[in-house]
Fold this protein.
Amino acid sequence: MSQITEQIYQSDIGDVLENSLNGIRPGPAECLRLLESDDVYLMGLVSGHLTKKQFGKKASFVNNIILNYTNVCITDCKFCAFYRSPGAEDSYTLTLDQIESRVKSAWELFKIRQVLIQGGHNPNLKIEYYEDAFKMIREKFPLVGVHGLSTSEIDMIARVEKSSTKEILSRLKDAGLQSIPGAGAEILVDSVKDIISPKKISSDDWIRIMDEAHSLGIPASATMMYGHVENNQNIVDHFFKIVKLQEKTKGFMAFIPWNFEPDNTLMQKEGIVENGSGGVQLLKMIAISRLVFDGLIPHIQSSWLTNGVGMAQLALQYGADDFGGTLIGEEVVSCTGARSTELTGKVIIDAIHQIGYQVEERDNFYNPVSLL
Ligand code: SF4
């Protein structure tokens, strides 16, 4: 028996890790034990092994921009440093021409393959605003995928239009929406949401809108924002709500755990959370995500946006297979002063090569564009 295998067997989570090596995913009780364990290194050994078995020494990324099309928002989440109330002096909403010019420059400069479109809950924007933007992007830049609008933005449009979220999703798909990001989930437990984002949609609504999107053939990513007021049981509940939906729809392409950045947020001002949760917790979350979703959700994304490139390199050893996007133009996390908010493809490619991995540039649907 090797030293490492011996360490795994001697660990109090050894049985869970052994099951993972044999293709048996942890259930809720085992997931709670992983969250309560300090054996992050052993979790990483197993999750890294499962990832390499599937992807080899290769990591993907997408050349993309974020269009934070408006900072006007009426939802006042306590963890958000980005939003402005309607009418605020420094509020903004991009025009269709501004959107076109940003996508055009990004296409010409970086040959982007995805526009990630996210913004505030702006009650002044009708559905035509989104339809016009999506149609323009798809017609003028056919190789650029439209990955946009969190479930809570879709809910906002439905309320503005006095329509159902399914109808809104269907119209947006016809206009060119190809996939939706997982934002707005935070932690899918209402007692947590009641503290950090009381005006946002409930957990059940997030699941319902994702279910509707998947049933219309719109795939999505799922996310988890941890490191604030949640406890381990809340995280377990979050994971397994997503497991349940994925077993039904197979609509999630990727899972992205990312840590809450408290700087400049109301939660920090009110003393609810003082500091971020740090790198070890990130690696633990990446490792557990791979173990929980192994064989169920294909991709686990490293979270360079809030943790920087060095941590993202480590995350690739702990279960992530995708570096995410270049995220040119990101404005939401930048408002918290988080360390790294804009990368170009070259920095990501160099970072992946530094750890001896091949780089796969991918498109919006995780199809390979080139191998570098
Ligand atoms: S996180 Fe989104 S919904 Fe919440 S306040 Fe910020 S912009 Fe608005």
